[in-house]
Amino acid sequence: MIPGFTYLDLYLFAAAVIIVAVVGIIKQDLFNKLSTRITTLILAAGLITFFLIPVSNKFTPTVDNMWLPLGVHLSIVLGVAAMLGLLAARFVRQPLRQFNDAVASLEKNDYKVQLQLTGISEFDEVVLRFNDLSRRLQHEEKLRKDLVSDTSHELNTPLTTMIGQLTAMQEGKLPVTEERLTILKQQAERLADLVRQLDAYTKARMPDSHESENVAIKELSKQLISHFSDDLKQKGIHATLHIADGLIIKANRDALQRILTNFIQNTLRYSQATELAITVTADALTFTDNGKGVPEESLPHLFERFYRVDKSRNRTTGGLGLGLAIIKELVEQQGWRIQAEHANPGITFVVTLHEKD
Questions:
Q1: pLDDT digit string (tens) for 76-111?
Q2: SS3 286
Q3: CATH number at residue 162
Q4: Quick one: the chain helix, strand, coil %, rounded to 5?
């Protein structure tokens, strides 16, 4: 028998150890929680103090001074609390130091920083969200640089052509002909198209100040198909609508019209399709064509600004890479979601509809 302890004390201690062991075996992730670790340390401090005080009484000399045992007991309580407090602080101090260093890196525009998992669930939830944010910031920084580079290229190409042609005609090195004037007009139209799309993209990113309204989606789709009928006929594309009569979608009418318009223009310009179909239910709007589709590696990037499946700078096949980016901005502005899928053949764009909170 241990001096200073009763059998009841030993039974209670053994029961506490058994309970902790069983809980640890059954639910291991319980000890990954900071709250559980702190609670365990508090309980451990109580148990250690509970057993040390009787031991100290056994070995403390018997003296008339009552303050000596009291001082010993107080030292035990404070010492155990300080020791376990330092251990508890370690659970918090290391993750916080890691967060502090990571934030300092972000302040220096270093978006490659990634935090390591700590093994404590409360901190690891924040770690995962921080790492995701860091990756998105890094991606956005790349897009920003690409935006400047691509915009510069798109502006520089037609301007260089126009200035070269005009200078040569002004100096009399080239005659003013109908063909050269046509080229200049085409380049000017290219610049105007770029400016229009940049303006449309900028407006799409601005907060929506228009109220949502009930839109008869089948009637709106018919109007757009009718508007593009000559272009569709010229490309040999047959359009089909799968929309119930009287179906109503609550949305910004202008934004919804712009979304459908960009879908149709995208099909006309790049798809090489013979059919397109617009399907709308109460939950989703689906736009499908049976064209050449896109490579698997391009699918996740289709909605990035200035991203082009055709990496060439060919104006006819490369485009500006803003049409689908505008669609994404308008879709998310409505509180919806969009994704692209392979249609085999062709491609399908699925807009999941749900009202804003």
A1: 566 666 666 666 666 677 778 888 888 888 888 888
A2: strand
A3: 1.10.287.130
A4: 65, 10, 25
235/328 same-domain check: yes
The radius of gyration of the chain from alpha carbons, rounded to an integer in Å, stands at 35
Whole domain around residue 185: which residue ranges? 121-203
Domain containing 267 — which CATH number?
Answer: 3.30.565.10
> pLDDT tens, 133-186?
888 888 777 777 777 777 777 778 788 888 988 998 888 888 988 888 888 888
Cβ atoms of 204 and 262 closer than 8 Å: no
